From TrEMBL:
This is Hemerythrin-like domain-containing protein. The lineage of its organism: Bacteria, Fusobacteriati, Fusobacteriota, Fusobacteriia, Fusobacteriales. One of its GO terms (cellular component) is plasma membrane. Residues 92-213 form the Hemerythrin-like domain. InterPro entries: Hemerythrin-like, PAS-like_dom_sf.
Length: 395
């Protein structure tokens, strides 16, 4: 009981410290006041601290305003924390290798572009640095879903995802400034400086907080499953690893793929046929059940929204950055209440024109059983004119 009491007292003091920092109190005074508890902080404490903040109603946006200052104060004890580093074959090993390469590129940018105020060099390096998005996409679609299933205090991952988006936005902003200016100026220097601050902060939060806790909480079997899913994505700054896995692979418990699997009034299909049909459709399909949990997604040839088996069973709210969760919940609430049966959006993404539709799925008694998301690349469809009939292909 004494250990629990002391731990609770420690977290409460860290909460008091962080609240003071968030509200703009004198930093030196706060550090002096809470120095003992700061010196003893561990990665687990940081996760719990941020989780408590969010559950107390402090939004990710507010946390982000002071997170870099707070984490810098925690740097020394976290840097000194002893943990077993990942070995080759573990996903975290490659995340850290990517970070090493990223730091090398950042140093090159400082030396070759910033110090020399060479905007042409900066433009060249920005093309390379954008590969960091592959690193973040893997975290969001593989690492985060696994950690959400294992951690009761996973809400800090929402803040990290939000910071990913901040970095993405800042990269776009730097691109825009480079296009608008032929040489370095005050605004470019300021924006690049802010970018460096954010991205070094992300490396720090990964390697001194999230990765140490993950190494001590994720079982070996899950790391192997995770690594298999990671290989379905691109890597940043390093070659995609070639890994031989143990013979223990997830077995298909559905039996013979050619056995009858799906039978309705309009026909019948075996599992193999059904899966091939769904994956042959030129659309992304994702189904969320009545409890807001992801139950299925299709695997079309050209999927534009990344999905991995890790998201099965994941709350759909956790599949989106914090800034867009309220929109997702508004759509789901309107479906559950019966106010709406569908919703649609369209957007430009990587030179593609994407049409996204959401449909409320109801049973024969009009009870809500889930939501179907259907995404389609309509780039070529939107260019169609006139007609092309089936008979035209026989000419």
């Amino acid at each position: 009981m004494e250990i629990i009491k002391n731990h609770e007292e420690k977290i409460n003091k860290l909460l008091e410290f962080s609240k003071g920092m968030i509200s703009g109190e004198d930093g030196k005074f706060l550090v002096d006041k809470y120095q003992k508890v700061i010196d003893e902080i561990t990665p687990f404490d940081v996760i719990e601290l941020e989780d408590r903040q969010i559950k107390m109603g402090i939004t990710p946006a507010i946390i982000k305003n002071s997170i870099e200052k707070i984490m810098n104060i925690f740097y020394t004890p976290l840097e000194n924390y002893n943990w077993e580093k990942p070995e080759e074959g573990n996903p975290l090993y490659y995340y850290m290798k990517e970070n090493d390469k990223l730091k090398e590129i950042l140093e090159e940018i400082k030396k070759e572009a910033i110090m020399k105020q060479d905007i042409t060099k900066l433009k060249e390096y920005m093309v390379k640095i954008k590969e960091i998005n592959n690193h973040y996409i893997r975290k969001e679609n593989v690492l985060f879903p696994y950690l959400e299933k294992l951690w009761t205090n996973y809400t800090p991952l929402k803040v990290m995802w939000s910071l990913h988006d901040d970095i993405r936005k800042m990269l776009k902003n730097i691109d825009k400034l480079i296009e608008q200016n032929s040489s370095f100026n005050v605004e470019i220097n300021k924006t690049v400086g802010e970018f460096f601050f954010l991205i070094y902060g992300m490396i720090f939060k990964e390697e001194l907080v999230v990765f140490p806790v993950a190494m001590q909480t994720v079982p070996e079997k899950s790391w192997q499953e995770m690594m298999k899913e990671e290989l379905g994505f691109e890597f940043s700054f390093i070659e995609k690893p070639i890994i031989k896995f143990d013979d223990e692979v997830k077995k298909d418990n559905m039996g013979n793929l050619k056995e009858l699997f799906f039978k309705v009034e309009t026909g019948e299909l075996n599992k193999n046929q059904l899966e091939l049909i769904l994956n042959s459709l030129p659309i992304d399909i994702t189904f969320i059940d009545e409890n807001d949990e992801v139950k299925y997604f299709s695997k079309p040839k050209d999927r534009f929204f990344p999905r991995t088996p890790a998201i099965i069973g994941r709350k759909v709210q956790n599949c989106h950055p914090p800034e867009s969760v309220n929109i997702v919940e508004r759509i789901l609430d309107s479906f559950k209440s019966g106010e709406k049966d569908s919703e649609k959006f369209w957007l430009k993404m990587r030179n593609k024109y994407i049409y996204i539709q959401y449909f409320a799925v109801r049973d024969d008694k009009n009870r809500y059983i889930g939501t179907l998301e259907v995404g389609q690349d309509i780039t070529e469809i939107s260019k169609l004119e006139g007609e092309k009939r089936l008979v035209d292909d026989t000419k």
